[in-house]
Amino acid sequence: MRNEKLRVLIAEDDYLVNEMVRGILLELNYDVVGEATTGPQAVAMAASLRPDVIIMDIQMPGFDGIEATQRIQQTCPTPVVILTAYETPDLVQRAGAAGANAYLVKPANARGLERVITIARARFGDMQALQHLNAQLQTDNKELDAFAHTVAHDLQSPLSLVIGFSDLLRESVTHSVAHGAAHYPPEKVSEILGAISRNARKMSNIVDELMLLAGVRKMEVELEPVDVLLTALEAKQRVAHQTMETGAIMETSDSWPLALGYAPWIEEIWANYLSNGIKYGGQPPHLRLGAELTGDGMVKYWVRDNGRGLSPADQARLFVPFTQLKQVRAKGHGLGLSIVQRIVEKLGGRAGVESVIGGGSTFWFALPQVNDETV
C-alpha cells in the first residue's frame, strides 16, 4: 500500500464499470472524491474538486471523454487516464492531442490501474514542466528581441553624433595640414570633443545596462540586510559628472531603515533614478532623497525632482515589461526603468512613480523591511 492517498475522480457512465473501478481504487487506498456520468459533469467536477488524477471513459453523454479531457486541460490541468474498450492509433493520437496522459483497456484490474495512474502523473508532471519551460523561453525570446531593438535604437543617435563630430575634427585636421591653419578655433574643437565624450558615455551606459540585465536575468541572490543609504551615496558618486555639468543639488536625509536586498542591484536602482532626476529635473535640477516605512512590512525609498512632471498616460507607460519596449517609450525613461522593475521583482519588492504636471516627479521603490527575525 502507498502512504500517499491520492484523490481520484471517476468519469464513467456505465454503472457496473464505475463500481468496479471504484472498488479497485478503494482497495488500492485511493480516495474517490467524485463520480461523473457525463462529459460536462466531468469538466465541472474537475474544476470544483481538483482531483490528483481522473479516470476518464471515452463514450459519455453530453460530449465524449476526449473533449472533456481537452476542456479540463485548458481550465484546470489534471493528470487523465483514458479508460477505453479498445485502443487504436487514431484514438491514441486524438486522446494525446487532447492532453490524456495514459490509457487503460477495459476491463480494469488493480495492477494495471495503479500502473497507469503512476504513468499518467509522471507524464503530466513532465508535460507541465515542458510547458512552463516553453512559456519561459517564449517570454525570454520576446524580451531579448525587444531589448535588442531598444538598444539598437538608443545607440543609433549617440553613435551618429560621435561619427559626425569625429568627421568634423578630421576635416579640421586635413584643412590645417593643407593650408597651414586650423579650420576650427580651439574653443570649437573643445566643444566638439565634449560632445563626443558625452555621447560615448551614453553608449557606454547602454552597454552597462545590457550587462546588468544579463546579470539580473541569470543570478539568484540571497537577500540580506542592506544599508540602502550607503548604496544611494555610492550612486551619487557615479553621477558626479552629471551633477557638475548641470549644477544639480541633492539633499539626503541622515538615516534610513535597513531593507532586505542585494546592495549592487539597489545601487543600480539609485543610479538610474538619480540620472533620470538630473536629466529631467528643473534648472538647476534639485533632488531630494528619502525613505519611509509603509506599514505593510516594506520600506519605501524615493527620489523627488523639481521637473515638469509626467502626465498619467506617461506614468502608466514607464515601468513596462521588456516585451513592450518597442511599442512603449515615455520621455526616454523606458529602458532603465524596465531594468529597475526586473530588479525589484527579483528582490521581492515593487517600484513606481508619483507625479503631477508642473509639480515634479517622485520615483520610488519598496523593499522588505529588516526586523528582528531577519537580522
Brief characterization of the structure:
The protein has 375 residues and is α/β, with parallel strands linked by helices.
What does this structure look like?
This protein has helices spanning 15-27, 39-49, 65-75, 89-98, 110-179, 186-218, 228-238, 240-246, 263-280, 312-316, 334-346, and strands spanning 7-11, 31-36, 53-57, 80-84, 102-105, 224-226, 249-252, 259-261, 286-293, 298-304, 350-355, 361-368. The protein is α/β, with parallel strands linked by helices. The strands form 3 sheets. It has a 5-stranded parallel sheet with strand order 2-1-3-4-5, sandwiched between helices. The chain has a 5-stranded mixed sheet with strand order 7-9-10-12-11, with helices on one face. Strands 6-8 form a two-stranded antiparallel ribbon. Helix 2 runs parallel beside helix 3 (65-75). The longest helix has 70 residues, at 110-179. The two termini are 46 Å apart. 33% of the residues are buried. Residues 323-334 have low confidence and may be disordered.
